[in-house]
Design a protein that fits this description.
single chain; elongated; 146 residues; 5 helices; mainly alpha; 0% strand
Length: 146
């Protein structure tokens, strides 16, 4: 990989980090608050699933689409930066968690864990697409043999 493609990967990494931070700050946090209020009277299993799914799905789709990195360092930098962002958001929004109550602790932590797992799934899918594209035979060489 030459320096131009390394620079391109660093720019895509920065763009993905900015997109994830903007989505987290502007969209997901408000949606999570509304979901928490709407699902407060539900039984625990569906409530926990509904609270974990938004970050999971958004991050899996976003990172799967934009996180097609060739270098392992890009994957690790994104995961560490996103985990740091989630820790900061957790510290800001979940100030009064009742750690003695399993349901309360789950309501506080599962949405963030869902986002991290979604990001890892998106990175895995993006990496898999990059590897399969790199190992696939060229279409032009297939047409040349015909």
């Amino acid at each position: 990989m030459d320096s131009a493609s390394t620079r391109n990967e660093a720019i895509r990494l920065l763009g993905l980090l900015i997109a994830a931070a903007l989505l987290e700050a502007l969209v997901i946090s408000g949606a999570m608050f509304r979901l928490l209020v709407a699902s407060a009277q539900w039984s625990p299993p569906p409530q926990l699933l509904v609270l974990a799914l938004p970050r999971f799905v958004v991050m899996a789709v976003l990172v799967g689409a934009l996180g097609r990195f060739r270098k392992l360092w890009s994957l690790l930098v994104f995961l560490v930066a996103y985990a740091g962002l989630l820790l900061v958001r957790f510290d800001q929004t979940e100030a009064f968690v009742d750690w003695e109550n399993t349901l309360g602790a789950s309501r506080a932590t599962l949405p963030y864990l869902g986002g991290l797992i979604g990001a890892m799934l998106g990175l895995w899918l993006g990496r898999r697409a990059v590897i399969s594209r790199a190992t696939a035979p060229e279409k032009s060489s297939l047409h040349a043999k015909s």
